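Sequence in, structure out. Go.
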Amino acid sequence: MTTRKTMFATIFTAVTIAGSLMCADVQTSHAEVQKIRWKVQAVFPTWMPGLGDAIVDLAADLDKATDGNIKFKVFDSGKIVPSKEITEAVKDNKIPAAYAYFTYDQGKMPASTLLSAVPFGLEPVEYAAWWYYAGGEQLAQKVYKSYGLKIMLASIIGPETAGWYRKEIKSLDDLKGLKIRFSGLGGDVLEKTGASVTLKMAEELYPALEKGELDATEYSSPAIDQRMGFYKIAKNNYFPGWHQTFTATHLVVNQGVWDKLTASNKALIEMACTASTFKALTHGESLQGAVLNGFPEHGVVARQLSPEILQKLKELTNEVMAEKVASDPMFKEVYESQMAFKKEYQIWKENGYLPRNFK
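Output:
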């Protein structure tokens, strides 16, 4: 009897100890869950579909997927630092992360703009393929090596329009002296036509058009431009968006902050960025047809730049690119990588897909 009691006591003790250890393990695992609370500033207004709202959706998806362990407090453009200073702010750890548009860094790093917008460049799917599978991501890290940033593609949308004009553009001569808002490399190309190019931020554009400070402007896709009201003043919307065949926006994280994350949290954020990229592209593409179909009710005419104008713009683009390649080794490396991929991909694009004018 004593032996039996002793045996039960031993078993009870063992179960109790095991249970205590299990509870301790559960408590330890809960204690070790890493909670992320980051301020993340957006470079574009977050109401912009596919372009600005991608970071809001990304934050919401991470919040849900992690039961609130990863939370980004998203600040709209300009709320913490000016949009053109976003990458500097992350580098200096004024904010741990940001949703950045690298063209705004073009003045200090010429190659940066190639990661966000290129005249006569890759189309969105081509850019994504180059980024994920042809060395694009690695080149981006190389461009920003001195900044100590972790860079992830978080949004890509289709081409912009070629601009909103008060008057028709029948030749490049019509651009001479024209006061126009253009950004990045496309602006460099237009300057060669004799246009008076300026870079204004989103909130400045409608008032500038209204007051006559601008004769024309480009900004983004038809769906975004419509909400900015350009159609009320400039009735000629030109296509195709030769100067910006894609717009890519990235999540950038201070490298020191990134290095402190667990492997699982790094993977979760990277997966969320990849999903965000695809969602932004499809969101943007879903809206454009309806906007263009609605042009007539606003008195807007969707016009095509003539083949002659496009050819001359391509020649001027080649001049600009040659100048940049000659002056900056990093620009040369990134641009040549993109163009090599574009050339390789071209045969698949021509053979694999139906012609765009096939109905």
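Check: The domain at 34-157+246-287 is CATH 3.40.190.170 (D-Maltodextrin-Binding Protein; domain 2). The two ends are 92 Å apart (CA to CA).
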